[in-house]
Amino acid sequence: MPFVNFAELKTRVSIEQAVQWLGLKLAAHGSQYRGACPVCQTGGDRALIVTPAKGLFYCFAEKSGGDTIALTAHIRGISVKEAADQLDRAFGTVQNGTSTVSKNRATVPQAPEARKQPAFDPEAYAARLDASHASLAPLGLSAETLKAWKAGYSNSGTNRGRLAIALHDRDGNILGFAGRSLGDEQPALTIPNGINPQEIIFGGERVEAGTLYLVRDVLDVLKAHESGVTNCVCFLTEISALQIEMLAALMATKHCDTVELF
User: Fold this and answer.
1) Which among 4, 56, 168, 221 counts the fewest CB atoms within 10 Å?
2) What is the set of domains in the chain, with CATH numbers?
């Protein structure tokens, strides 16, 4: 198999071109394209999302995503190297003009000096988390994504040996840090004392107008973010009537027109 420069290939072949070449039937929705995943065949008719501006895709059914090469590997059921080789052969020269993907459907508060510092400093705690720890590698999340969510491997405290993740209120203030297990350890998610998990919608502080995606796990939210999918949230407990009311209020406040469940 000949050498393929992945970085050069991704600048030469846009994800929109790959969508068309792969024969994907995706409908335009704002700045994204959505449709059923022909490989997974689960998750409904919006399980596969492509975000052209970021050159990324995400499959809610498989809970994975990536760039143009990763999309090709996913759809063709081949390795990343094989996908790169196929793209290189299919797009051997720089393509002129713009993508032929249709617009409607594609076949393709700083504290004052005199103020006493709180006993717990969430920013200092977040800075001590190791976003590059080897134990986190199986999660498939980059250090950049983990840092963006103030998450990382905890070496001490109640979250020791777990992925510590910041929990925010709707205004974006850090309430504390949950601990997500990295294996079969139970409970899968630990919540700090004094925080009612039923009163938190994880990721809610980042929601903007448009479609809201409700997933099952905090890791699903982070994986979606990694692949360019925003407006993804989850509950921290089994769904209750209170949480349904909270979700409706969040959607009304943020002007979210629909919610997709995965």
Assistant:
1) 4
2) 6-106 (3.90.580.10), 122-261 (no CATH)
